[in-house]
Amino acid sequence: MKFFQLKFSSHASSYLITLTLLVIVFFVFLPFVGICLLFLLIFVAYFFRDPDKVIPQDENLILSPADGVITFIGPSDLPPETEVKSIDYNKISIFLSIFDIHINRIPASGKILSCDYVPGKFLNATIDKSSNENERNIVSIETKYNNTLVLVQIAGLIARRIISELQKDQNVTLGDRYGIIKFGSRVDIYIPKKINIHVLEGQKVIGGETILADQENKFKITGNIKK
Questions:
Q1: Nearest to 163 by CA among 141, 180, 151, 176
Q2: What's the CA gap between 114 and 146, in Å, rounded?
Q3: Dist. CA 180–CA 206, nearest whole Å
């Protein structure tokens, strides 16, 4: 049913208004172009859809920050731009195709420690080196369980604009919307190794709903982690 919710991101307004006006004008003078623009309008509306999610209400959980497919789970160094370097981390990479919902969600309640935008390339987001070479936005969150999570929005081959609405020292709530990457992308989340991971590579995840991990390690481990 979520697919049919007529709810769009506020970031879609300029695109939708412009395309709607173009469709109207070209339908009058060049109907074929108007039809093409209408299909483009439908695609843009589909891309910017923003359905409500069923957010689990357990603040022990770490939820997926994005809709997409997990392409990597394993140990990884943190991005060099972050100052969090005292413990070991596992990284979960989530690839978003142009058909996924692109609204990003807060994975755990807590406080924003830092927000760092890093200009870079636009390599295919499925390539691992895009983590450190592509344009990206890096956010560190201190959770209510005193764990530090690192989120990285990564631009892809098609994506050309990253939007994050977070600010340093801001308090955030599990499942809240916090940004968007326009037209294809990837999101990496770095989780301390002491925390159990409950997802698998190749798994489809839903932002704000799929449980990636639990901070108290109360649940049985089901994930696979590369060594």
A1: 180
A2: 15
A3: 14
**pTM for the whole thing?**
0.82
**CATH superfamily label, 61-214:** Glucose Permease (Domain IIA) (2.70.70.10)
Say how far apart CA 72 and CA 20 lie, in whole Å.
39
Contact 94, 209 (CB under 8 A): no
**Set 9, 131, 164, 185: catalytic member:** 185
The CB density around residue 5, as the number of other CB atoms within 10 Å, is 11
Instruction: For 172-226, write each residue's pLDDT tens digit.
Output: 999 999 988 876 678 999 999 999 999 999 999 999 999 999 998 877 665 566 6
Clarify whether 185 is annotated catalytic.
yes
For residue 158, what are its two tokens? 């098609």
Rg of the chain over Cα atoms, rounded to whole angstroms, equals: 18
